[in-house]
């Protein structure tokens, strides 16, 4: 029997041809020190080589700076990439990253973001160091596994570094950015000109102005008067919330009161004020409870975003109210003119209501059912490690 005769009747699977050869690149390092070691340049070179090898064209670049990957929402360049992908009419075939841990270290959150890019926008991820691409199921699963592994590595790194950070604090050093009025010099700082071999926190020009504010407060001057005097005499602007927080920061009298420490520690920096002055201000604050002239009421069910949203122009929290005659709910910025926005979409609304727009925004971050198992595995792993 001639079985070869029947080969011509076999249906062959057609190879998918990629017409869109446009890709965007994303690079990132976690600190300035990595950037100085040319890690950004190494990532860009690897992505460029991959694009040349497979005939892709890099049309846009994102990242190219240092950003921590522990929180995706706090990464400015990462959010710029996602926003540009959503609004772009001509979307790229893929976003190219040298290694997946450069894309994100948030585990399940990163997988959710990746799934949205693939399923809703039709944009894939390419890991140029390995050639993996989410345009096929096997590679996609491998990439998702790598994102989970990056999260695990991040958790392990934090647990290992915590004792070191506690020791660093106990020695009188400060973690993170200091309050307004001080400038930090050291190894991990945002300003390259402030890089030094050891940490040094010094009082700057704003600090000397803030010292006057502390003295005025100790003399009984109201916050509103202090803010007006600072702006009038020194062109120093500070919000009422920031000024109120200033009075409650022991940092200014040279004390570290950190969550990682069981007790307060004396800091190495020069205090802006004395402990006596700090305690005097606390006494004034505690003896005079704030009387605002109005009573704060619970959030209205028709305006649940009150205080959560912030004005895109001035950055102040959005308030809300109801037009009692027509029973229409509005959100409003108290500072910017013309800042009224419908809470719900109505027949006469020119634009969708804020609540509906927020619901649409949340829908962009819904977890794809296909990834439910991956999320469950990640949560199980995290709970097992910490409890």
Instruction: Provide the low-confidence segments as ranges.
Output: 291-297
Average pLDDT for all residues: 85
Could you estimate the helical fraction of the residues in percent?
25-40%
Structure classification: alpha/beta
* Helix/strand order, N-terminal first: EHHEHEHHEEHEEHHHEEHEEEHH
Strand order, main sheet: write it out.
2-1-3-4-5
Radius of gyration: 27 Å
Cα distance spanning the termini:
67 Å
Q: Could you describe the largest sheet, including whether it forms a barrel? A: 5 strands, mixed
Walkthrough of the structure:
The protein is α/β, with parallel strands linked by helices and about 375 residues long. Helix content is about 40%, strand content about 15%. The chain has 12 helices and 12 strands. It has a 5-stranded mixed β-sheet with strand order 2-1-3-4-5, with helices on both faces. A 3-stranded antiparallel β-sheet has the order 10-11-12, with no helix packed on it. The protein has a two-stranded antiparallel ribbon with strand order 6-7. A hairpin with an 8-residue loop joins strand 8 (about 255) and strand 9 (about 265). Helix 5 (about 110-120) packs antiparallel against helix 6 and helix 7 runs antiparallel to helix 8. Mean pLDDT is about 85; it is low at about 290-295.
Spell out the key features of this protein.
12 helices, alpha/beta, 387 residues, five-stranded mixed β-sheet, 12 strands, three-stranded antiparallel β-sheet, 40% helix, globular
